[in-house]
Structure formats: C-alpha cells, structure tokens
Design a protein that fits this description.
Elements: H1 3-13, H2 18-25, H3 29-36, H4 44-54, H5 87-102, H6 105-121
Helix pairs in contact: 2-3
Length: 122
C-alpha cells in the first residue's frame, strides 16, 4: 500500500481533516495533500509527526493490521553456534569495521585474500 493512501485512510477513519492534521503536526495542509496524492514521500521524522497526530503507533502507517508484523529471522552462512553469532564474534567485528574503513581498497582486498587463504587451510 502506498503511504499516502494509508495516511488518508487513517485520517478519514479518525474523522480528521487535513486542517486538523496541520494543527496537530505543524505541517502545512498542502504538504499533507501532496503526501496523500503521492507527489511527495515523507521523511521518517514526518511520519512520526503523522503518527502522533493520528494517535497511533508508527507501524500502523505502513502495516494494515492489529498487531505489528513479526520480524523475519536473519539467515547467516554459519551454523547456529558459529563465531559470528557469538559475543566474541560481535566484539571482533566492532573492532574490525572502523579499521577496515580507514584502509584503501587495495589493502582491504589484501586482507580479504589472506583471510580466504587461511580459511582454505583448515
């Protein structure tokens, strides 16, 4: 469902006008009209304003149902007990990410090549 259609449906269900939304959010009425007609995509902060104005949880702007959707499980390449799911693996990645970000592409490729060679030996 397009966010503008959902916003309009929720607004009308609460019997609110675009002017009421303007008063509650501080956003001009023509902006709400542009969102509802699909001419503008609102930012996350603006969606929060709309949710507060409509007195609903934010997920209801994007999901049509009584309960929030259940999060999907994240699939990993490793097994359930693999190092990347462990606290030690998370600490390693937290340390490694900023260091990799400071390297140039050639150095990152060298690190990746070495890691692949070491992994093949096992």
């Amino acid at each position: 469902m397009i966010i503008g259609d959902r916003l309009k449906t929720l607004r009308e269900a609460k019997k609110l006008s675009q002017g009421d939304i303007e008063t509650r959010t501080g956003l001009v009425r023509c902006y709400t009209s542009r969102v509802e007609n699909g001419h503008t995509v609102p930012s996350l902060e603006t969606l929060e304003k709309y949710a507060r104005a409509l007195e609903i949880p934010m997920y209801q702007l994007m999901f049509d149902g009584h309960e929030p959707p259940t999060p999907r499980s994240v699939k990993t390449n490793g097994s359930k007990g693999s190092w990347d799911m462990s606290p030690a693996g998370e600490r390693l990645m937290r340390k490694l990410n900023p260091l990799l970000a400071k390297m140039n592409q050639t150095d990152r490729e060298l690190i990746l090549f070495l890691a692949q060679k070491v992994a093949k030996r096992r």
